# Entry
Amino acid sequence: MFIHTDNITAYIPQRTPIVMISGILEVKDNITRTGLQIAADNLFVEEGVLKSPGLLENMAQTAAARVGYVALQEGTPVPIGFIGAVKDFEVFAFPPAGSFIETTTEIQSQVFNATMVAAKVTLDGRLMAQCELKIFINP
# Structure
C-alpha cells in the first residue's frame, strides 16, 4: 500500500517519461521503499523486460524520493541531487513488463552533502538488482 502516489513528481525532480517509481511505500529511519508498476511502454522496457538503465534509475529515484519526502515533511523546498558514483551494480534478473517491483534504499553514511546508499530491487521477494550509490545533494 502506497503512502504517497498522488503526485510522485512532488518528491523527485524527474518528469515523464523518466519517472521510474509509482509511489512511496515506506520511509522509516534510514530505509526508504518504493514501488513501480512496470508499464509495457516504459522507456526502459525492451523485449518485454525492464533493462539495466531502468533498474538503476529506479534505485536512484528511490533515494531521491526520500530526500523529497523529508523536505516536504519539514516544509522546505525539495533539493536537487545527482548520482556521483555507482558501485557494484549487479543485475540478477530483468523484471517483466506488467510486474510490480519494490525498491529499497538504506543510508549507509552521510558526510556533508554526500550520501552513500545501498539499493536493491525485488520482485515477489526475489532479488533482481542491487548496487551502492553515492548521491550528492545540491544545497
